[in-house]
Amino acid sequence: MALHIDDINRSAKAYFTKLNTFVNQYNLTPRVPSTIAWKVTDINAFCDDLSGFLSHKQISQCHIGFVDKRYIASIVFKQPIYQNIHILKLMQRRPQSTDPIGLDHADFIVDNFSEFVAELTKQKVPEWSLESNEIHGWISVWFNNTEAKYVDHIVLDVGVKELQEITQQLGYEPKSV
User: Fold this and answer.
1) Higher pLDDT, residue 67 or 141
2) What is the pLDDT of residues 127-155, one digit of tens each?
C-alpha cells in the first residue's frame, strides 16, 4: 500500500498548523473538520491505495463515484485518520492535470453559507469563492498554497444523493430504509 495512515497524519498536522495560523490571522470562527481530501496521480494509484486500506480491514464504508472525469472515493475508516476525522476523500487527479498530489484540502461544516460569506467579507479574507457542481455547493478558501472547503453537509451526503439519482435513472423510487 503506497498511502498509509501515517502519511495522512503527517500531512494533516502540517495542513492544520497552516490553517490555524490563517484562521487566527483573519479572526475567523474555527470550524470542525469532517473530511480530509487526498489527491493521487492516476487510476492505478487510486486503486492501489484503496486496495491497501481494504486489505488491511481499515474501512467500514466506501462510496466510489465518477465526477469531473475522475474517480473519487468517500472512505469511512474504523479508527480516526487524524484527530477525530474518520472520512477520507480519495481523489484521482483529473486527466492532464498537474495538481500536486497528497493532502489537497479538508472539508469543514458551516451551518449557514450566508453567515459564513458575511464573516469572510467582514474579515476581508482575500481568496475565496462560492463553487458548485451538478450535485452540491461549497465555499473554497485558499491560504498558504492550499485550500479549505466549507460545506453544509458531509461528503457521505453527496454519495447518498448520487445513489438516489442513479436509483431514479434506473426506474425506481429511492426509499429511506
Assistant:
1) 141
2) 999 999 888 999 999 999 999 999 999 99
Question: What's at 125, amino acid-wise?
Answer: V
**Which three cell numbers, joined as nine digits, stand for 146?**
492550499
pLDDT tens for each residue of 34-62: 999 999 999 999 999 999 999 888 899 99
d(CA 123, CA 119): 6
Pick the CATH number of 5-169 from 3.30.1490.480, 3.10.180.10, 2.60.40.1120, 3.40.50.620: 3.10.180.10
Contacts of 166 (CB under 8 A, 6+ apart): none
CB 34 within 8 A of CB 155: yes
Quick one: cell of 30?
A: 474555527
Rounded to 10 degrees, the C-alpha dihedral 169/93/97/151 comes to 70
Q: How far apart are CA 4 and CA 172, in angstroms?
A: 39
First vs last Cα of the chain: how many Å apart? 35
